[in-house]
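Re: beginner question about structure tokens

> Can someone show what the tokenized structure looks like for a real chain? I only ever see the sequence side.

Sure, here's an example I had lying around. Input first:
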Amino acid sequence: GAGYEDVLMATVGLSGEGGEVEVELEPPVLVLSQRLSVGRTYHRTLAVTNRSRGPTVLRWEEFPDVLYQAVRVIPQTLTLQPMERREIRVEVAPKRVGPLEASLACEVENGSRLAFALFSDVSGPLLRIKEAIVDFGLMRVGDKSKQTLTITNVCDVMARWSLSVEEEEGTAEGTAASIKLSPDHGLLDANRTVQVTLSYSPSCPSRSRATLKCDTEGGSPLYVSLRGEVIYPNVSVSDYDLDLGTIFLAVPVTKRIFMRNRTLLPRTRFSWASASGGPMTESGSPMIRITFKVVEGALGPNETAPVDFTVEALSLGDGGGNIGGGEGELGSASNPGRMEALVPLDIEGMPQPAGFCIRARVMGLAVTYHAGTIDSVPPVPDDVRGTPAALLIGVKTDWHEDLLGPDTDAPCVIDFGTCDAMRKHSRTLLLRNHTGIASAFTLHAEGFGVASHEILLAERQHQALATAG
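And the corresponding structure tokens:
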């Protein structure tokens, strides 16, 4: 076949002027005034412009996340046409607390390298506690006080927190253990709030001072001052030793004393002993009855309240005596009974005993009645006044011994003798109160007829005449 050869037909000369691609970055330095948080992702925008007449390709370098805290440009590769302007996005994801300084380079095809700098500050999770001081106030030993603490997450990432209590110097040992926190740890979402309840149950009086510490993972700790004043209740009465003087058997006596709350505790509860009490007689029955108008209640801060009560002697007291004895009958003016009793007062939470002592001289209440005038009744001696023996003074003794018993119910006869019909006749009945207090009495007629003892006398006389005959 035929053969072919290259033949030079013409020569063309080419000439021109060239240069590298020029790309402009705005701004070359990126300063983030916002305080960044660990675990959160932030975005900012940059602008790149191709100032040349030829296209180019931009390739942003990529570095390890730990080194540059995950700073990258999106998109990582970008093609720019001549005179084209594009926006790129810078993504920042901080991973540790501290100053953030990063520089990221960009390879420009057919051009010089670009770079931009990033400056900011990275903080950990940030919490705020509303209360700077938690004051439990004035408390009594054994009471329980509750206060509330408000914790707010003011950053834009989740925070892990925990609480602890540390005793301050000079505070009673065990104060921190007496303060309970609920809850004492947890996770708090961004811009959320949690309420923490603090319960304080002191077991001894003290000037309580402690510090609550709030630790945040990756953040700075917060501190809150805790304080409280713990005391025992203290209530006193105006009369610790109350002498009632002379009182009478089974006659109530009303008295008033005062009790005072000597602290500023808000409510101090009190309770008096039961209405019946005091020492007992040999038979086991109480010698005294005490009735309080207000048995229990509460005293306010530094409050003074009256205590009204009634005392009634149920017995003449310990000891005894015989009628006509050397010192007189027990319960008489010359030998009154002696009564002493302790009246306990229960104060809630008060370790010291409280109350008062009652003392009194007890006399019997004696009222006698006799037929006759005042002058006809012999006086009652002081040694038996106010006693059952006084009832025998001035009573007729000319009756038969079988009719006049040894007890105090000896009969009293008002004898009108022989009376004319249709005429008014009168006799005197003398009532005598042998004690120093008033005694009410009532007189009424039960019926008419021959007295029973006169019937007995008549029968005895009839028997005597029959025997003699």
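Each token stands for a local structural state, so reading them left to right follows the chain. The first helix runs from residue 65 to 68.
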